[in-house]
Write a structure and sequence with these properties.
Helix content: 25-40%
Shape: globular
Radius of gyration: 15 Å
Strand content: 35-45%
Order of helices and strands: EEEEH
Distance between the termini: 14 Å
Number of helices: 1
Largest sheet: 4 strands, antiparallel
Structural class: alpha+beta
């Protein structure tokens, strides 16, 4: 993860969230990991994350977020920040 463990990029559409973390490999080269989750509220009112997506609507949102992440990564690569 990056120095503080915080994402370098985050995007949300309704209950779906994409977070991108910048890391450094053993060779010193940076790389990015992406975490895609669906937020939901349990019966007790506590918020949790799931890697399972429910129905077509969640998948459409996930696809839109993946497109946003790809654009961010392309911008980073173009800026020489990879």
């Amino acid at each position: 993860m990056n120095e503080r463990g915080k994402p370098v990029y985050e995007a949300k559409l309704r209950q779906i969230r994409a977070s991108v973390f910048k890391n450094t490999g053993k060779d010193g080269m940076p790389y990015f990991n992406t975490h895609l989750v669906r937020r939901y509220q349990s019966g007790e009112g506590e918020w949790s994350n799931s890697s399972h997506f429910t129905g077509e609507a969640d998948l459409v949102l996930a696809r839109q977020l993946i497109d946003q992440v790809l654009e961010f990564l392309r911008t980073e690569r173009g800026a020489g920040n990879e």
